[in-house]
Amino acid sequence: KKSVDKGRRRERNLAKIVGGKRTGIVGQGEKPDVEAAEFVFELKSRKRLPRFIIKGIGQALSAGFATGKEGILVLEECDVGQEPIQIFCHLSAASWRKHHCVKSGE
């Protein structure tokens, strides 16, 4: 119960950040955790992310800052003999809002 409540709070927070709506179902079926106008979101939360991911986020943010562009972290799972699975991660809530949210009065 306690972990489900935490998950719901995190999903509500994500919905607020992306301007979407929490669907109300925790971990069931094909329904997303959060649905927005153009995107659906599945939230996976951990107490600590693996250090190599944190390092990759830092590298992407630094490269983005240095070039004046948006830094994107790409996670890839490569199994021998299989096509790689690539996951593109938009890095910050502030960047998300800058690119995907309409400001009031617009």
What can be said about this structure in brief?
With 106 residues, the protein is of the alpha+beta class.
Q: Classify the secondary structure makeup into a structural class.
A: alpha+beta
Strand order of the largest sheet: 1-2-3
Q: Main beta sheet, described?
A: 3 strands, antiparallel
Proportion in helices: 25-40%
Number of E-state strands: 5
Q: What string, H for helix and E for strand, traces the elements in order?
A: HEEEHEEH
Report the portion of residues in β strands.
15-25%
Q: First CA to last CA: what distance?
A: 41 Å
Radius of gyration based on Cα positions = 16 Å
Low-confidence stretches: none
Annotation keywords:
single chain; 106 residues; alpha+beta; three-stranded antiparallel β-sheet; two-stranded antiparallel ribbon; 5 strands; globular
Would you give an account of this structure?
The chain is built from three helices and five strands. The protein is an alpha+beta fold. The strands form two sheets. It has a three-stranded antiparallel beta sheet, with helices on one face. A two-stranded antiparallel ribbon has the order 4-5.
